[in-house]
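Supplementary Text 2. Reproducibility record for the structural model of the 396-residue chain.

All settings were left at their defaults, and a single model was retained for analysis rather than an ensemble. We include the record here because the model underlies the residue-level annotations in Supplementary Table 4.
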Amino acid sequence: MVQVRRLRVRDFRTYAAADVPVGAGLTVLHGPNGAGKTNVLEALYFGCTARSCRTANEREVVRFDAPAARVEVDTTDGEGDRHTLAVGFAPGEPKRIRVDGAPVERLTDSPARPLVSVFLPDRLELVKGAPTGRRAHLDQLVAALWPSRAANRAQYSRAIAQRNALLSRVRSGRASPASLDAWDLELARWGIALRDDRAAAVERVGAMFPAIAGELGLNGAAELRYRPRSRAETAGELAAELAERRAGDLDRGFTQHGPHRDDLLFQRDGRDLKAFGSQGEQRLALLSLLLAERAVLAQERGAAPLMLLDDVMSELDADRRALLIARLDDGGQAVLTTTDLAHVPGGEAAGVVRLAVTPGVVSVEDAAGSSPPAEASSASPPAPTDPTMLSAAEAA
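Retained model, structure tokens:
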């Protein structure tokens, strides 16, 4: 089980520098709106995945007027060995990613990296947005549950790209329509594997989703349902469906049928929450999904993911806040933000790490509630621990 021990940032969002401890169980970031609590969660996610959980334009993570940002995350693995994940980013340059000082292409393959789950208000698009986001989330869940199956998604993407390219050549008269037969079979082979992986993941998570949703206050019969586009049982049947639709694909120039058109449905009493749920109900559905995934991952992988929860208490009553904290007390780590520490049941307990956040500063609170800033943050940037993580502009 990999645990995060510490986060260090330089020139990330509103922070010139910060050194933030992370507890073995619950860590609570509290402070007024706009203080920078969400930025700490984003930095944790960035340091564990090398990407932002808030924006596709990652130039935004670099502090204003700074040339580059750096995030380091210290972790401990199941053997007790310590590791450091480091991500340096300067706009216009490739990210510099290192594990224990050695450069790597990506963090997802590193055993020193924890699994991470994040709840942000902006992530409501997962419930109410386009199916593309839900498919991507499902594929990430499959990869987290069964890492060896991630190749099925990659192979399907490759096959559909090849088939679409061949459709273009057939339309222009540079290839025969019969040449699509082989790629129909290849696409169908990986498509059935991908469809079955997703269905298996939804079955596991869906078994826990209704009870958690009910606990958190989503009234009615909650259900998580995978909706595949194809009814094919085998690769041969899916290839036949593709052949039947070939004329339409040639007319449009791309493949219209297959798992890349599937969807994940959040339902209550048989009605889709995307269309018929309030924003509050959609928030509860999203939170229930993430908690169900956490429980399944803990069973399958032997470790619950690090859970990052932003402003999750604001729409829960006191009883459901207590139920949420009880759910998080499963041996895994959770970091949550709140404007009021009183909104976190057990937030004053001895085992909870409490961090007071003011603009640009994160301070550790002791048991008496006092905050010595020097323990957690610095007003000026520290000396870089890894000069190779700097951009060319900084190094100069």
